[in-house]
Amino acid sequence: MKFNVQGKAFLNQLQSVSKVLNSKNAITVLDNFLFTVEGDRLTITGSDSENILTASVEIFESECDGAVAVPAKRLLEVVKEVASQPLTFVINDVTKEIDLVFLTGHFSFMGVNASEYPVADKGNEETIKLTVPSDVIVKGIDSTLFAVSTDTIRPMMTGIYWDIHKEDITFVGSDTHKLVKYVNSEYAPGIESSFILPAKPAAIIKGLLEKEEGDVVVEMDSRSAIFNYGDYSLSCRFINGNYPNYNRVIPVDNPYSLTVDRVTLLAAVRRVSIFASKASNLVKFRMSDSDLRLSAQDLDYSTQAEEKVECEYSGQEMTIGFNAGHMIEMLNNLHSDNVIIKVSDPARPALFEPLEKTEGESVVMIQMPLQVIE
User: Fold this and answer.
1) Which of 121, 155, 334, 354 is least surrounded by Cβ atoms within 10 Å, i.e. has the fewest?
2) Does the predicted model carry a pTM greater than 0.90?
3) Predicted pLDDT at 44
């Protein structure tokens, strides 16, 4: 098997596929890329056993079709050094020896029989097909991915919940301390369905799509989905289980409202949190008619900080405690100049919304408060 490929395009596809690979694999063949040559296209496949990502690239002067598994780490290292020039692969179909030829030399290394590489399980279930604009998926993942849990005790919370309705798609992420609900009604799927997408494939999809425009074809059954986009295809398994009823935890009767500049509040929380207890990361929000006062202290080191932030507040004076790290994450991911914080009392969840709304989109974030001891 022999073919030529343009170095930069080849490297770009290799780097994209490498995002699905694990640094350590129980199955050694997964330390490799699978190369499949068909006509004038080379398909590069990477897998971590749960997810399979493929990317294709144009090749030239291909002598015959075939397949071989190629050591991923070594290939990436050498191609980075010679990506500015055309590359020729010469692969011995019997011994699997690979000779990578470039303008001033060549590299030789061994491949692995392609038959050892795992392939996607096609299954016998009937699939549902959706064609979704890439920007809808990117916005949904970008708004919620930061909020998913990393605690595997509750695996359902470690992914993004896609709640698909006929008129819109709702994306939800939560770790029980914070929750984000993003609704996009720009696109109407016309069907009712739902699934929990693990965080890893969600991050891969976001990385592939965020700089591109176009439609993504999603083929899904009850256990998995395949996301097809341009030269890429990602097959991933869903997280099993029922996602909690997220609407039940979103407060609907928070009567007191605080409006504040997002960047100003974010900077103030960052500064004050330096002096917060490392155990709780507690920052107190004291809300009054005239201003918002942030304070934190660490009794173990006898340090404290206080800062005043201008705001508009309508409601009774109160003090609420928040985890500064969660607050910083939420403010970083609320894409608005000003933020509305709605509260009811210090023991109930606070609701965060952007003041400036985007037509066809809705985002709501909630954060559970921390106990404040005066």
Assistant:
1) 121
2) yes
3) 97
